[in-house]
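We were asked to recover a plausible sequence for a given structure. The inputs and outputs are reproduced exactly as logged, with field labels preserved.

PROBLEM: sequence recovery
POSITIONS: 514
GIVEN STRUCTURE:
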């Protein structure tokens, strides 16, 4: 469990999304319990496997080839070579490499699964994985090459290979050969026992770790999107009654009510003497709780599914030493994570689309209820020269379009592979990577939305020569933005500001508190 944000202990207890995400920071220590009963539970698996081997047991991936090669017999003597070959022939990943933070989460997720006690590995192997995190020796893992069943074989092979002293790692700001780092630190490579290579590789740790990280980012974006929607309503002098508590009691989706409550608190109590410019705002304002609220209502379910996968034994075969059984199955199949990631990216894409539509209203004098064209606010006589947020809005449309294009479900693109043994696969890792890309693009949209909505409210207040009534939370938020963002009076490049605000979003800079 997470303790003071500093130690994540791995034991028989369940591990949370927050635990995994905290391990991405080198300052957080992952510690495998030294409890004797836990050690015994872990070691019982490989000891039972040894007994089966001594009795000439027929064990998939131990005395057989892998996948469609299951009918190839492997002698007990060769069973110790087989896991090494497994790590090597899967060393064919391509594409960009996972970040150090992503890979720390992946290692942590694999430790959790192996700690369930069904994988037939030694306690010593768990300690070796922990050592990689302790010393920040992080495997270099290409992102591309997994179909999500039999788990994340190719990307996880890079972790297994590092344990035996092969391939490359991130260490002290450089990419180095594993053997050189191990030699420098007097680390002895692990000699894999039968089944241990398969146990490391044949699971869903990559997609699950990425799903954990996506969950945290989605949760924060959801809050921010509600906050900036409040600014849109203020800038457009919208109808505050669209977020009335009694109205939302009539359609009692919890997440939708929660979003409406955030906006309602930000807008403050409606002034009976101040009528809205139009009776009903356009859908991107009026229906914002119904759009953001779908994600809010889905998040508890997403959390449950991700954490169930995280805390599962998801390799094959599983070892049940307590009942003296070997269980051949398909727990490496990443269908649940694929479903969550495909669903989450659609809902995040809807946030990008919502903010894109809101921004279009703010910039267009036909719809912005008296705000300036393109939210430009130059000195007198310079209006014809300045174009404010015109190009930013074009950028937002581009980022939104790319995000929406990436929302196509990955899980429906199953491909039959590996001699039709893996004839139906999850595509869970591709879905997770797609979800991260949609989040990245939506964070860019959100950064632009923050700057544009703060500019819009500031222009409205200047035009009306008064401070608009608003809640304490949104007041603090605006004040913070204005402390390091100069309103656009004369046209200037905004890339630096946008990149700074994307970074703030990704680091969850604002404690929104709702």
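RECOVERED SEQUENCE:
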């Amino acid at each position: 469990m997470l303790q003071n944000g500093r130690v994540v202990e791995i034991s028989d207890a369940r591990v949370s999304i927050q635990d995994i995400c905290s391990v991405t920071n080198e300052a957080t220590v992952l510690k495998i319990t030294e409890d004797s009963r836990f050690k015994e539970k872990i070691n019982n698996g490989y000891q039972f496997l040894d007994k089966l081997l001594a009795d000439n047991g027929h064990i998939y991936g131990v005395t057989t080839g892998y996948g469609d090669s299951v009918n190839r017999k492997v002698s007990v003597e060769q069973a110790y070579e087989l896991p090494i070959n497994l790590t090597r022939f899967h060393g064919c990943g391509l594409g960009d490499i996972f970040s150090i933070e992503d890979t720390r989460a992946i290692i942590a997720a694999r430790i959790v699964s192996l700690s369930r006690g069904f994988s037939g590995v030694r306690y010593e192997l768990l300690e070796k994985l922990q050592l990689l995190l302790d010393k920040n020796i992080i495997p270099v893992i290409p992102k591309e090459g997994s179909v999500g069943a039999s788990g994340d074989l190719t990307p996880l092979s890079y972790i297994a290979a590092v344990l035996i002293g092969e391939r490359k790692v991130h260490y002290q700001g450089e990419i180095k050969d594993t053997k050189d780092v191990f030699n420098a630190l007097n680390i002895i490579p692990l000699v894999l026992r039968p089944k241990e290579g398969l146990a490391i590789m044949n699971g869903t740790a990559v997609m699950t770790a990425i799903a954990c990280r996506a969950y945290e980012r989605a949760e924060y974006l959801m809050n921010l999107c509600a906050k900036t929607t409040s600014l849109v309503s203020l800038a457009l002098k919208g109808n505050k009654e669209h977020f009335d508590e009694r109205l939302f009691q009539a359609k009692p989706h919890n997440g939708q009510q929660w979003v409406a409550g955030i906006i309602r608190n930000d807008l403050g109590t409606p002034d009976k003497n101040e009528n809205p410019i139009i009776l009903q705002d356009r859908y991107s304002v009026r229906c914002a709780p119904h759009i953001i609220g779908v994600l809010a209502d889905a998040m508890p379910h997403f959390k449950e599914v991700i954490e169930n996968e995280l805390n599962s034994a998801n390799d094959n075969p599983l070892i049940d030493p307590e009942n003296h059984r070997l269980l051949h199955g398909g727990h490496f199949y990443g269908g649940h994570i694929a479903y969550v990631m495909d669903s989450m990216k659609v809902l995040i894409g809807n946030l990008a689309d919502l903010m894109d539509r809101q921004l279009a209203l703010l910039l267009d004098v036909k719809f912005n209820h008296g705000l300036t064209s393109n939210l430009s606010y130059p000195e007198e006589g310079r209006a014809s020269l300045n174009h404010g947020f015109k190009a930013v809005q074009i950028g937002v449309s581009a980022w939104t379009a790319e995000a929406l294009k990436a929302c196509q479900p990955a899980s429906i693109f199953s491909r039959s592979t590996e001699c039709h043994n893996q004839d139906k696969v999850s595509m869970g890792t591709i879905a997770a990577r797609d979800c991260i890309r949609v989040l990245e693009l939506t964070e860019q949209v959100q950064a632009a939305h923050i700057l544009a909505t703060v500019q819009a409210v500031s222009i409205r207040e200047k035009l009306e020569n008064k401070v608009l009534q608003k809640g304490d939370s949104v007041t603090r938020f605006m004040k913070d933005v204005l402390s390091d963002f100069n309103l656009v009076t004369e046209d200037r490049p905004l890339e630096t500001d946008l990149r700074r605000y994307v970074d703030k979003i990704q680091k969850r800079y604002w404690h929104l508190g709702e």
